[in-house]
Amino acid sequence: MITYLSAMIGRHIANKADNQEQAEVIAYGIEIILGAIIKGLIISLVTWFIGTFYETWLVLFFSALLRIFSGGVHCTSYTRCLITSSFVFSSLGLVVKLWQPHLTEQSIFAIITLSTLVLLVICVIWIPAGNEVRPLEKYNDRVRFKTLSFGIISLYFLVFIVVLNYFSIIPKTFLLASITGFLWQGFTVTPFGYSLVGRFDSFLISLSLTKGR
């Protein structure tokens, strides 16, 4: 449905601009925008209902922030991406919420320190990870994205130390949500992440409602 609607809008805009050659490119951009809006609305409704709205969106924001430079696995259609993203981020937000009563200054420091070390190792070995949308075949691009990812992870840890020592008013749940987002994105660039998402994607393909785009 979204693909069809995007194609219609793309053709209309291309007609107005008298540039039919760009119709497919315009349609693709519109599909991405519409898809992001719908995905955001669904995740918002689900997480608001279960009481994890803020935690989930923090997980999603930090995951998306690192994904800009790290790349990572993609589902093979918008519908499967929507289902997978909604399930994963809603679940992660719920996990963060459930951990809230157990968080102390010492535990959050240990979690984020250990997680940062894991992320830096992942960055050295697997980031950036190409996909069909962005293959990252050029050596210079790979070095640039690896450096930027390494910098973001390192900067995050430094900011975390400052926040933990001087801005204790910030809920520790939010700190846990932010590192959870980074960890999930880090996981999606590893062979294990590609395998897990690929298996889930294949499972959804086997369901009649997710066949096609």
Notes on the structure:
The protein is 77% helix and 0% strand. The termini are close together. The chain has helices at 2-16, 23-50, 53-70, 78-99, 105-126, 139-166, 172-188, 191-205. The chain contains 8 helices and no strands. The chain is globular, with a radius of gyration of 19 Å. It folds into 2 domains: 1-50; 51-210, no CATH class. With 213 residues, it is mainly α. The mean pLDDT is 86.
Nutshell version of this structure?
By secondary structure, this protein is mainly alpha-helical. It is 77% helix and 0% strand.
Tags for this entry?
213 residues; mainly alpha; 2 domains
List the helices and strands and how they pair.
Layout: H1 2-16, H2 23-50, H3 53-70, H4 78-99, H5 105-126, H6 139-166, H7 172-188, H8 191-205
Cα shape? globular
Largest sheet: none
Q: How many structural domains can be distinguished in the coordinates?
A: 2
Strand content: under 5%
Let me know the number of strands.
Answer: 0
The pLDDT mean sits at: 86
- SSE order, as H and E? HHHHHHHH
Proportion of residues in helical segments? over 70%
Q: In angstroms, what separates the terminal alpha carbons?
A: 9 Å
Given the structure, what is the number of helices? 8
Q: Give me the secondary-structure category.
A: mainly alpha
- Rg computed from alpha carbons, rounded to a whole number of angstroms: 19 Å
| Low-pLDDT segments, ≥5 res | none
